[in-house]
C-alpha cells in the first residue's frame, strides 16, 4: 500500500476522498469539526509537495438529489479558515463545471466538490460514475476511513481507474491503532461496549472475548441482558429476540475466563426527556412505567476501578442517553476514568468513533486519550475481521 510519506505530489492533482460528514445546526454551522481537522495534515502534505487538492465527500443522507441542507458549500468558509487559504467550490461533483475547475487548478490550490450523494450512483458503486470522478485527478488518495466499509463509487470502485492509489494519514492512523489494539494490546485489556443494541455489537463482542481480560457492558443493550436474567426493566430498551444471545455471551465469557461486567444500578426516568423525574434503582428493579437512561453511581464506581487498573482500553458506545445532560453522567464519568488511566497509568486508549467520539470530544477530552477514531461502523467491521472495500482498493 502506498502511503503519503512515500509519494511525491509535485505537479499532481490529488483527488482526495475525505470524510466531511460533519453535524450542522439549523443555521448550517458545524457543531463538531473533528472529521475536517483530522484530514488537514493529508491536504497540507499534498500542497507542501507542490500539488493541488480536489476534495470529495458525502454529507448526510440526501434522499432526492441536491438539497440545501446537505450542500457542502456550507463547509467552504470554515475549511478556508482552517487551511488559511481560499478554498474553491464546484457546485457539482461531475459534469462540465467540476471538470473545468479541476483542469484549471494550480499547485497549492484546493477545490471542494459538491456532495457525492446527490447522485444515487455513488452509494450504488456505479462504475461509470466512478470513472467520471476519476477523470478529475492524477492520483487517488483515500483518507475517508469512516466510509471504508462501504463499496461506494468514490471510496472503493474508483481505485481501478488509477495507477497511483495512496493511503491518507487518517486512514493509516486508523488501521495502525486498530492493529495495536487487536495484535499488541498490553494487559489488563478492557473493552467498554455501550450503545442501544446487542445486534449492532454482537460480532465485535464475540471477537473481543478472545482478546480482552474485562468486558464492560453499558448503554441500552444492558436491559436485554437484565431481562434475559429475569430482571424487571420497565419500559427500557429491549431486543426481545436477543435474550438467548445475551445469556449465551455471558456463558462464553465465563468459559473464556473473561470478566464480563454489567451495571449493578440504573438511573431511570418516568419519560424519555431531559427534564423527566429520576430515580436510582438496583439493576432488575425498574418500575413498570419507568425506563433506564443511564448507569447509576455504584456502577460508575465499579467500572472506574476496573479502568484505572487497565493498560489497554477500547471504548465504543455511550453508557446512557448522553444527549440529555441529566443522563450523561455515566458516559462523562467513563470518559474521565479513561483519561485518568491514559494520563496517570500510561494506558493506551482507543475511542471507537460515533457517539463515544462525540461524547469524549464534547467533554473536551479528545486530546487526552491515545486515539479517537473518526469511523464508528468502519472501525467495528475492521475489528470484526472483515475486509473493508475502501482499504482493499488501496492495496
TrEMBL record:
<keyword id="KW-0547">Nucleotide-binding</keyword>
<feature type="binding site">
    <location>
        <position position="150"/>
    </location>
    <ligand>
        <name>substrate</name>
    </ligand>
</feature>
<feature type="binding site">
    <location>
        <position position="201"/>
    </location>
    <ligand>
        <name>ATP</name>
    </ligand>
</feature>
<comment type="similarity">
    <text>Belongs to the phosphoglycerate kinase family.</text>
</comment>
<keyword id="KW-0067">ATP-binding</keyword>
<dbReference type="InterPro" id="IPR036043">
    <property type="entry name" value="Phosphoglycerate_kinase_sf"/>
</dbReference>
<keyword id="KW-0963">Cytoplasm</keyword>
<keyword id="KW-0808">Transferase</keyword>
<feature type="binding site">
    <location>
        <begin position="19"/>
        <end position="21"/>
    </location>
    <ligand>
        <name>substrate</name>
    </ligand>
</feature>
<feature type="binding site">
    <location>
        <position position="323"/>
    </location>
    <ligand>
        <name>ATP</name>
    </ligand>
</feature>
<keyword id="KW-0324">Glycolysis</keyword>
<feature type="binding site">
    <location>
        <position position="35"/>
    </location>
    <ligand>
        <name>substrate</name>
    </ligand>
</feature>
<feature type="binding site">
    <location>
        <position position="292"/>
    </location>
    <ligand>
        <name>ATP</name>
    </ligand>
</feature>
<feature type="binding site">
    <location>
        <position position="117"/>
    </location>
    <ligand>
        <name>substrate</name>
    </ligand>
</feature>
<keyword id="KW-0418">Kinase</keyword>
<dbReference type="Pfam" id="PF00162">
    <property type="entry name" value="PGK"/>
</dbReference>
<protein>
    <recommendedName>
        <fullName>Phosphoglycerate kinase</fullName>
        <ecNumber>2.7.2.3</ecNumber>
    </recommendedName>
</protein>
<dbReference type="InterPro" id="IPR001576">
    <property type="entry name" value="Phosphoglycerate_kinase"/>
</dbReference>
<feature type="binding site">
    <location>
        <begin position="353"/>
        <end position="356"/>
    </location>
    <ligand>
        <name>ATP</name>
    </ligand>
</feature>
<comment type="pathway">
    <text>Carbohydrate degradation; glycolysis; pyruvate from D-glyceraldehyde 3-phosphate: step 2/5.</text>
</comment>
<dbReference type="GO" id="GO:0016301">
    <property type="term" value="F:kinase activity"/>
</dbReference>
<comment type="subunit">
    <text>Monomer.</text>
</comment>
<feature type="binding site">
    <location>
        <begin position="58"/>
        <end position="61"/>
    </location>
    <ligand>
        <name>substrate</name>
    </ligand>
</feature>
<dbReference type="InterPro" id="IPR015824">
    <property type="entry name" value="Phosphoglycerate_kinase_N"/>
</dbReference>
